[in-house]
Amino acid sequence: MRQLDQSCQHFDHSLHLLSLEFNQVSAALSALAAILEQSKLDTLECEQVYCLLEPFAHRLQQTTIQM
C-alpha cells in the first residue's frame, strides 16, 4: 500500500509539473498570437514567423516526451 501511495504522489507531482509547463507554453503562444495579429503582420517574412514558432514547437515536443 505504501508503494502505491508513493507512486501516486510521484504521478501527481509529474502531472503538476507538466501542467505548469503547458500553462507557460500556452501563455507564450497567446502572446505570440497577439504579436502576429498586429497590423504590420504583412511585413513579417515566413522565416521570421518560423523563428518565433520554432522554440515553442521544440518545447512542446520535449514536454510530450516527458509525459
What can you see in these coordinates?
84% of the residues lie in helices and 0% in strands. The protein has 67 residues and is an all-alpha fold. The chain is built from two helices and no strands. The mean pLDDT is 80. The protein is elongated, with a radius of gyration of 18 Å. The protein has one domain (2-66).
In short:
This protein has 67 residues and is mainly α. It has helices spanning 2-36, 46-66. It has one domain (2-66).
List keywords for this structure.
67 residues, mainly alpha, 0% strand
The residue-averaged pLDDT reads: 80
Biggest beta sheet summary: none
Helical proportion, percent range: over 70%
Q: Point out poorly predicted stretches.
A: none
Strand content: under 5%
Number of strands: 0
Compute the number of helices: 2
SS-derived structural category: mainly alpha
- Number of discrete domains: 1
Helix-strand pattern? HH
What is the overall silhouette?
elongated
End-to-end span in angstroms? 25 Å
CA-atom Rg in angstroms: 18 Å
